[in-house]
Design brief:
By secondary structure, this protein is of the alpha+beta class. It is built from seven helices and 29 strands. The protein is about 15% helix and about 25% strand. Helix 2 packs across helix 6 and helix 3 crosses helix 4. The longest helix has 23 residues.
């Protein structure tokens, strides 16, 4: 009895490990690309892609790219004069990852506020996961130019007609910690800025209060009548849908006094762009593939792997070795979803069956899940004075012994006459490569329902 439980437990651990490793075994470094667009001049007097101190950092592979601070690379797409319907989101899919609107309508006298159609497209872009940075003009004699965007978002926040012109140049207070101000490039400090349009806030989070200092002088030291101007926030942020929005009363990425953008300002925009790097720098890919062309049928690996007809019994996968389960476990199956002893009728089942739901049918090519050496397992055997047949029908087994793998994949119920070999001697096996056809889906052996309607591939790993 002790041997029985040790064996069944060993098989359980082995099958569980192998099935999970189908999904999570091989680590590969990938780099996706962050696509950046925005408004160009004259629509935006300060196009983001013209600011060398920021662009050079975004294009630095030590900062963005494989092995960089952020694993995604950066690609600048053409900047535009207007946002056309469908230009940012086409058929539900974003065409960009970051849109730097900048200071829309800044070019005087060619004043062009954000249209309603543009605002709707931009709001949809954020909802679908896009990152938007937008500011307004800080000209006292101009009206706010981007409030249509906030209307499209369905929030009551608005730029006001007022401009905080306490000084031509100063520094903000220390920003509060957000996903942007505390990002992969570090904590953002006081931001350099000039006079800015006041933002009336409701849904957005105030991030950085303006004018803590002016030319090194703390504004609290100024007279009360002047200090009243320094009570406004220059920067606000908000998560919206699957995306993120940063709003400021003037473009914070522009250089000041010809000296290039402030270091903290640069850091802020590097962190902002990094939000668009959704994929991890390393992902796991399967070391085994599935034994049919699921991609040719429009399925992903995960979709196909989980399109299961019959589950593997993780408690007692004993079917192929002819051992019986304890009475208490008979008639139940413990499946990978974490469900213990369910009433599913797969008790003792030692593999996964893929049939109609996985888009396999009689005659579908069965492919090697990995390279190895294949041989035939004959279902016929002598039982007394007659020939009997085992439940698995025609079977091909592949040993994968290269590079220390030491495992075997099995393919059951194959169509008569379709096997790559009928040699039952493992020493006379046939070398096959991953993805090579080794047989066809059939209904030999015990299948349910009987006949062609029950055709499927029983796939197992030991």
């Amino acid at each position: 009895m002790g041997h029985f439980f040790r064996l069944s437990f060993r098989l359980y651990i082995l099958f569980l490990f192998v099935f999970l490793s189908l999904f999570f075994s091989s680590k590969v470094t990938l780099a996706s690309t962050i696509r950046i667009g925005g408004f160009d001049s004259p629509r935006n007097d300060f196009p983001f892609n013209d600011e060398d101190s920021i662009v050079s950092n975004l294009e630095d592979p030590s900062k963005f790219g494989i092995g960089g601070v952020v694993s995604c690379g950066v690609e600048f797409k053409p900047f535009v004069q207007e946002i056309a319907p469908g230009s940012l989101v086409s058929n539900g899919v974003r065409t960009l990852d970051v849109f730097i609107a900048g200071s829309v309508g800044y070019e005087y006298p060619e004043y062009r506020a954000l249209s309603t159609a543009e605002a709707v497209e931009l709001a949809l872009f954020v909802e679908k996961g896009g990152i938007v940075y937008i500011s307004d003009t800080n000209y006292v004699d101009e009206s706010p130019s981007v409030n249509t965007f906030f209307e499209a978002l369905g929030v009551v926040d608005r730029f006001s007609p007022d401009v905080d012109y306490l000084s031509f140049l100063g520094e903000s207070y220390q920003p509060i910690e957000t996903r942007v101000t505390k990002g992969p490039f570090g904590l953002v400090g006081n931001l350099t800025h000039g006079d800015f349009r006041v933002f009336s806030v409701s849904s957005f989070t105030p991030v950085a209060k303006g004018f803590e200092t002016i030319g090194g002088i703390i504004t609290m030291a100024l007279g009360e009548s002047e200090a009243d101007f320094g009570e406004n926030y220059v920067l606000h942020e908000m998560a919206y849908g699957d995306g993120y929005i940063s709003v400021s009363g003037m473009p914070l990425y522009i250089p000041f006094l010809g000296s290039g953008a402030d270091e903290d300002n640069v850091k802020y925009f590097l962190n902002l762009v990094s939000l668009a790097c959704k994929a991890p720098s390393s992902v796991f890919v399967p070391f085994l593939d599935l034994p049919w062309d699921y991609q040719g049928k429009g399925m992903t690996f995960s979709q196909a792997a989980l399109s299961i007809n019959s589950y593997f019994d993780h408690e007692y996968p004993l079917l192929s070795i002819g051992m019986s389960e304890p009475i208490s476990a008979q008639g139940s199956a413990t499946i990978y979803k974490g469900l213990f002893r369910t009433s599913l009728d797969y008790s003792s089942h030692d593999g996964y069956d893929y049939g109609k739901s996985a888009q396999t049918k009689e005659g579908t090519p069965v492919l090697a899940a990995a390279s190895g050496c294949a041989y035939y397992k004959d279902p016929k055997y002598q039982c007394g004075d007659k020939t009997c047949a085992r439940a698995y029908g025609n079977a091909v087994l592949i040993n994968h012994d290269g590079a220390g793998e030491g495992f075997q994949t099995r393919y059951y119920h194959l169509q008569d006459g379709s096997m790559i070999t009928t040699n039952t001697d493992p020493a006379q096996c046939v070398q096959v490569t991953k993805g090579q056809q080794i047989g066809k889906v059939g209904h030999t052996g015990n299948v349910s329902p009987t006949g062609e309607a029950g055709s499927h591939i029983h796939f197992m790993v030991i």
